[in-house]
Amino acid sequence: MLHLDGETLAYGKTVVLSDVDFHLRPGERVVLLGRSGSGKSTLLNAAYARLVTQMPGNVALVPQENGLVPQLSVFHNTYMGRLDQHSAAYNLLNLIWPLASQRNRVDQVLQDVGLAGMARKPVVSLSGGQKQRTALARAIHRGGHILIGDEPVSAVDERHAAQLIQTLADRFETMLLALHDIALTRQIATRIVGIKNGRLIIDRPAAEVSDDALDALYHR
């Protein structure tokens, strides 16, 4: 599905990761771990760019900053997950006067992420956790088999984060996520990739990665 072989990945002109050998197979749930600034987002962005080119329409994204339009409603931001799947005229109609079928579809997704009854609220009025749930709703509404997520549940509490991650796992066959929570990683990951000092130093099945090895990622 995705292969990076000995590649150098940069942010602008700054090299972030070197000699990257990374693959993503169908059905895997891969979690990237490492200190802030270690290169998790850089690897996610590279993976997303490749996958969306190779498999257009089959990849959903939850970016770190949510990527929402604050002035628009929760409904509109969620609906926008499928803009490229409809004609311009159909999209314009639903952005001005949503069809019942689209309202019902979005309402179901919002219920799944804990935003029932909030479809008409402008995103600018939401809390940080609600904004993140809206970004998750947009990704779920988009659908496809693959989810790329950059800290997709960082703004919600531990219990709800676990529920939302499971909701995502139930909807997407393959996931590539950057997380900061070890317990959450243990819950969901089939494979763990650890990043430190500009390199991928761990890349093994989750069951084979010790807590000591994970702890070492966060200490110099």
TrEMBL record:
Write down any Gene Ontology CC term.
Answer: plasma membrane
Q: Which UniProt keywords apply?
A: ATP-binding, Nucleotide-binding
PANTHER family (alphabetical): FE(3+) IONS IMPORT ATP-BINDING PROTEIN FBPC, IMPORT ATP-BINDING PROTEIN
Residue limits of the ABC transporter domain? 2-220
- Gene Ontology molecular function: any one: ATP binding
Q: Any idea what this protein is called?
A: ATP-binding cassette domain-containing protein
